[in-house]
Amino acid sequence: MQALYAQLLVGLINGSFYALLSLGLAVIFGMLNIINFAHGALYMMGAFCAYFLLTLTGLGYWWALLIAPIVVGIFGMILERTLLKWLTGLDHLYGLLLTFGIALIVQGLFQNYFGSSGLPYAIPDELKGGMNLGFMFLPIYRGWVVIFSLVVCLATWFLIEKTQLGAYLRAATENPTLVRAFGINVPRMITLTYGLGVGLAALAGVLSAPINQVRPLMGADLIIVVFAVVVIGGMGSIMGSIITGFALGVIEGLTKYFYPEASNTVVFVLMVLVLLVKPAGLTGRAA
Amino acid sequence: MPEVRTAQAPAAAASQMAGQFAGQVLGVQNLEAWYGESHILHGVNFNVNAGEVVTLLGRNGAGKTTTLKSIMGIIGKRTGSIRFNDAEIIRTSSDRIARMGVAFCPEERGIFASLDVRENLLLPPAVKQGGLTLDQIFDLFPNLKERLKSQGTKLSGGEQQMLAIARILRTGATFLMLDEPTEGLAPVIIQQIGETIARLKKQGFTILLVEQNFRFASTVADRFYIVEHGKIIDGFANSELQSNMDKLHTYLGV
Amino acid sequence: MSALTDDTLSATPHAMRDEMIVFVIMALLLAAVPFSGIYPFFVMQALCFALVACAFNLLIGYGGLLSFGHAMFLGTAGYCSAHALKVWGLEPVLGILVGTGAACALAVVTGYISIRRQGIYFSMITLALSQLLYFLYLQTPFTHGEDGIQGIPQGMMLGFIDLSKPTILYYVVLIGFLAGFLLIFRTINSPFGEVLKSIRENEQRAISLGYKTDQYKLLAFILSGTIAGFAGSLKVFVAQNASLTDVHWSMSGEIVLMTLVGGLGTVFGPVVGAFVIIAMQQYLAGFGQWVTVIQGAIFVSCVLLFRRGLVGEIAHLLKRSL
Which residue of A has its CA nearest to C137? Predict the structure, then answer.
């Protein structure tokens, strides 16, 4: 029984990453109409940023949580200003190809300098150890990851759905020309939105660093699963992305307990099922 | 036989008539515009003076909306000259034009479905001092106050039109461009809109109106221009309306 | 969806004639390779990939569907052919049929699933399905996981063609390539191909004209997957192994890259692109992961600056269809 709860926890953790990443993808897709294949590489950069902060400057985990999303977010905004903005008006697929190329460049560079094996990143002292909850033993760090991710996801949802800033974002997603005709600098908004999505990915990377090793390809396989999550949940709803992400993580965790051989593939199988039964996805708009 | 006027003459005649008004707010010369490959405007010339309500009349596809969009800077390619308050804006981006004090209410109204009424209302930022306060807006459009929490597109056509006009009044822009504000609306609402425009005019707004419903336009406009095939082919003041009814019938096929 | 490719050229009356001339030149050049001193193994490999790229191009250049999972056809056919040849001891032609058939069956199933969505979602689905297969193959015993199936016999085709002789194998592979290429060429220039192109241009219009566009897209998908599988089966004879690399998403990415470099929607683009990329990989083999970085850089430059690809640019300059 312990093992079941342990797998459930792992599932929630993976679900946290699925939620954070698919949230970022959805926000970027809404505003830029680009599927950001580079999202996995940017997640990896967040983890590496945390690693560098620690090894080069001695700044620990808590600093990394703040700095890494900002640094990688700025990098993302530079990418948008220099490369992605040329994609406006082109067929969607070029966005996929361009960001795929960016992912290859980033991952290849990191692989060249760091090889393929993982670098260690320690759990911060404050979050070490665990609690005995009776029905299971809960490692504190892992509990932290789930709760913090949930908080960030909900905060992002709140920002987008309930604030004035979010209103600008939603309006610009719907009709960028008109929003610009009201005097709002929409190109700058687009850049900042990309930065936000990228920042979320980098944040997930920092959270991930103490659990999964920091390695150049850590985002590559993850991004494909996140794509499947996005196909299942659709990209039309922020809350939908969050719920789908966590749900699929949990389902994956449960599968690992009951039928371990399928755990790698269950999300994809679910995607197939959803496509056969409800092609438009569970919540969002069909392409 | 009414004399045929060239494109230049109406503008000149119109500005003579407009002598009693203060300076020119908008001056358009030789405006040509393209939607992708389609050449829509072939040299538009007209002007609007401060405090006036000027209407562009014409059939569907004549180029009236394209003219407004060209002024707003949201069309693909434009050449010629557009002067707003003495600044050349033919090459200016739309957000800068808006911040100079131009406000646009599009034909499709552009109410955002993913925003509620209140968010729609508060969306356009203030570009100048002197925009209407929320209270003043609710004065003009009392039924908006009750619908603040509704999703934007759940409003009726008339309410959406009110909302579209209301939100640009908050910005402080004094030059308003309204594209077919009465399209598809019930006569009662049309009358309300007419009254609103009259009140705005009294408060000093300058308004460029595009309308197919010239009966409505005649109740609010000071001057008219006729647009056909991407050019201004005629223009006259409201006082000359009666004597030009025959011409109007020909131009508009009414 | 707006057109990805420049279709105005293929409408010219001389288009097919130009393309046939280039085809003949290409075939003659390729036939002369064993006498030229160029390493035939390299060319054979390039030909297999060229055929996969052509099959991929059929789907994107003419159908407007970007498949990011074509490796699954290459790999599936490879594994099945390899198994048939090594474990069941089948004769080469039968081995190829087994592999191609497996790819065809896969294409039917995955096509049915993927076609249910368009555009970007279609691409993501093909990628996810390919990843699903990757994990399946990782775990199933017949693939031998990370080791792959090694030491596949080349055997005697039809009892008398000795495939273990490089020159003979080369001509067999060349004939396979040319046959597959011609099949794609015929398809593009057939009524079916015309409908496909019109779907790519404007699917709504095609639907309003009465075409069941989903059926056309599915058929194109199946054809594309089958031919890619055929190429994968041929490749088994050349490399004499079948491994996980062939099913990995990076392989799918390379197929996309080859076609992009050569020119999406051009007839000869994928062939040129395949040769360029394979040559580049050989040349940079000692540079480790720089190959990945360079491939990424090529993707980026092609999308931003060089969208027509090599053959596309040449065709544009010469104002001919290639």
Answer: A265
CB contact under 8 Å between A101 and C125, yes or no, is no
Structural domains of chain A sorted by starting position, each given as residue range(s) with its CATH number in brackets: 2-277 (1.10.3470)
- What crossing angle do the helices spanning A238-258 and A140-162 adopt, rounded to 10°? 160
Instruction: Please state the three-class secondary structure of chain A as a single string.
Output: CHHHHHHHHHHHHHHHHHHHHHHHHHHHHHHHCCCCCCHHHHHHHHHHHHHHHHHHHCCCHHHHHHHHHHHHHHHHHHHHHHCHHHHCCCCHHHHHHHHHHHHHHHHHHHHHHHCCCCECCCCCHHHCCEEECCCCEEEHHHHHHHHHHHHHHHHHHHHHHHCHHHHHHHHHHHCHHHHHHCCCCHHHHHHHHHHHHHHHHHHHHHHHCCCCCECCCCCHHHHHHHHHHHHHHCCCCHHHHHHHHHHHHHHHHHHHHHCHHHCCCHHHHHHHHHHHHCCCCCCCCCC
Domain count along chain C? 1
Burial class from Cβ neighbours inside 10 Å (0-12, 13-18, 19+) for residue B243 reads: exposed
Our CA angle for B224, B229, B233, nearest 5°, is: 40
Residue B7 lies in a domain: yes
Residue C87 maps to a domain: yes
Residue C241 has pLDDT above 70, yes or no: yes
- Residue C249 falls inside a structural domain: yes
CATH assignment of the domain containing B29: 3.40.50.300
CA-based angle C47:C250:C186, to the nearest 5?
Answer: 40
CA distance C172 to C157: 9
User: Is C306 within 8 Å of chain A by CB?
Assistant: no
pLDDT in tens, C260-312: 999 998 889 999 999 999 999 888 888 877 889 999 999 999 999 988 899 98
Q: What are phi and psi of B84, to 5 degrees?
A: -115, 120
Which CATH number is C151's domain given?
A: 1.10.3470
Residue type, A235: M
Q: Pick A275's closest partner by Cβ from C125, C138, C299.
A: C125
Quick one: closest CA in C to A235, which residue? C121
Q: Which of A87, A101, A106 sits opposite C299 (nearest CB)?
A: A101
Contact A180 B74 (CB under 8 A): yes
In this structure, is residue C4 part of a structural domain? Answer: no
Write the CB contacts of B232 (distance below 8 Å, at least 6 apart in sequence).
B7, B10, B11, B44, B45, B46, B225, B226
| Short-list C263, C256, C264, C244, CA closest to C310 | C263
- Min Cα distance C160 → chain A (Å) is 44
> Is the Cβ–Cβ distance between C267 and C225 less than 8 Å?
no
pLDDT 10s digits, C150-195: 888 888 888 778 878 888 889 999 999 999 999 999 998 889 988 9
Answer whether residue B164 is part of any domain: no
Reading the block at residue B205, the tokens are 């707004």
Residue B199, in any domain of the structure: no
Select the residue of A170, A182, A184 nearest B114 (Cβ to Cβ). Answer: A170
Q: Which residue in C has a C-alpha nearest to residue A106's C-alpha?
A: C293
**Which residue range forms the structural domain that includes residue C207?**
9-31+40-318
Domain count, chain B: 1
**Token pair belonging to A113:** 């300098």
| Residue B16 domain boundaries | 1-101+206-254
Contact call for residues B144 and B166 (beta carbons, < 8 A): yes
Neighbours of chain C (3+ CB pairs under 8 A): A
Q: Sort out which chain A residues have CB atoms less than 8 A from C2's CB and list them.
A: 90-91
Q: Is B156 part of a structural domain of the chain?
A: no
Q: Say how far apart CA B177 and CA B73 lie, in whole Å.
A: 13
A251-264 tens-digit pLDDT:
999 998 888 888 88
Question: Across the interface, which of A173, A175, A181 has its CB nearest the CB of B98?
Answer: A181
Q: Has residue C188 been placed in a domain? A: yes
pTM, entire model: 0.88
